[in-house]
Structures are given as structure tokens and as C-alpha cells.
Predict the 3D structure of the following.
Amino acid sequence: MATSANPIVNIAHFAPFAANPADTSVTITINSADVFTEVVFADTVVGLSMLPAGVYTVEIKPTGTNTVAMSGVFTLEENQEYTILAIGDGSANMPLELEVIAKPMMAQAAGDAMVLIGHYAPFAATVAATAVDICNDATQSAVLSGVLYGANSGYLPLPAGLYDLSIALPGTNCGTVVYDLPSLQFNAGEFYDVFAIGKNNAAYPLNVVSLSGLDSPPVVNIAHFAPFGADVAGTSVTISVNGTDTFTEVVFADTVTGVQLPAGVYTVEVKPTGTSTVAMSGASRLRATTNILSWRLVTVQRTCRWN
């Protein structure tokens, strides 16, 4: 019999409801207890596991007041993970509210990662005007089209590998990019979330963040520093990666920089040009780099009280 474990809860403040982030400070109350205080826009609490399974009322109150700006009643089950998002800018079209996302307890198909993309950036006056396309830069095509504020994709199965994604204005064939993400590696069997937040202005620039953490692919630099020939031309080599001739006619002092490869084990062989003789070889494991909360998101766990 599987051992029961408390639910895991993540909380994120994605609601830019004031003129600046400092004025979005709130207290997060769970079942009438003030648990987190002075939480501001883009702050998160990740991996909260002290709550047993049960029904909980979560309330969000502006700091220094007893006014409940957002609230929700959530049933948390054992061995489950939940993300509770405070969203909205307080306008009529994008009101303040709490949204909960439950991580599925399903097994992925072999070779797939599960990826959730959410649009919580209230950067326009109406929901319709917030539409964006999520684009694959490699193919210059939309992965998701016409995504509106308040929508998320749910956890989508994607083949594991490298992805270069961007956010573009709809109807531009991915030509008008408003946010270009760095290259990402989605690993088989892993769950990832990606959220667009902010209002695309000076106080709240458009940003892309993650609570799950995102993996950046390894970056490899190659340099030919072996003066083994009578002259530079005589040092020409082919560099083979995992049996494939990848770089040819590389000579002394040549460099190749910024090569992105999926994490894994690679065998590199160096052969003098025009031969199949391996002059140098080596095997290395390349590992992805995990960005726990993306590139610009800073997690600040403020005062925590639990009675």
C-alpha cells in the first residue's frame, strides 16, 4: 500500500492591481490564520507541505486591512500537488480572483514531458485585446494560437527535447515577438509550468516565470588549440559528435561557441581532414541547468505564521 503524504501547495501573487509592486502587498490567510504577510506581486511560496488533506479557505487581504480582496475554498487531497494563483488587475474585465491548478496524477507516455502554459498578463483593457500566440522559433509557427488572459493550456504532453519559444502578437505569423524565451529543455517524465505575467509597462514589464523550475540545455564551446601540423592549414580536422561529422575543416585557433545540445552522454572524436583516423576522442555527460524560478522571478517567502 502506498504511503499517504500531505498535499503540496504552491502559491503565487500574479495580480498587478496597484500603481507599483510595493503597493500590491497582501496578507495570505488560510482558515482564518494569517500565514504569509507582506507578499507582493511576483512573490511565490513553493512546496508548502504542512497542510494535511482537507478543505481550506484561502483569503487575500491588502496589507494593513481586513478587507478580503480575493478568496476561495479548496479541497486538498493526499499525494496531490496544487498551485494557487492570485490573478487580475482589479478592473471590471480582469477582476481579482484565485485560480487553482491541480497537477495531474497521470503517467506520461514514454519520451514525453508534461508542460503547462498559462497567460496571466492583464496588459490590455479588455480580455480580447490580450490575445497572443505561443510560437516555436525553429519552425516560425504557432504552438498555441489566440491565447487570452486567464487561460492555461493544461498539462500538454510534448516530446522531450530542446524548445525555443516566444510570445508573439496574433495574426503576425509569429513575426511580431513581444517576449523571446531562452532555449528550454523539457526532459522526459518531468512536469513543467510556464506563466506569462505583468502589464507590459514600466512598473510591471511583461515577464515569463515558472514555479516548477525550467531546464536550460547545456551550452558547449569547442576550440582547436593543437598545433600538430607543419602549418595552420595542416591542422585541419573534422569533429564528430556521437558518430556524426558535425564540424569540418576546423584548423588551429578556430573556435565554435554557443552550441546547445540536449543533456546526455556524448562521444567527441577529432579526425584529420580527409581521413577516418581518430586522433583525439573523449566522452562526457552534459547536464541541463535548472532555473528554479525562471530568469527574473525572485522568490521571497515573507513572514510565515502557523498556529
In short: The longest strand covers residues 54-62. The chain has two domains: 8-217, 219-287. Residues 48 and 220 are 36 Å apart (CA to CA). The radius of gyration is 24 Å.
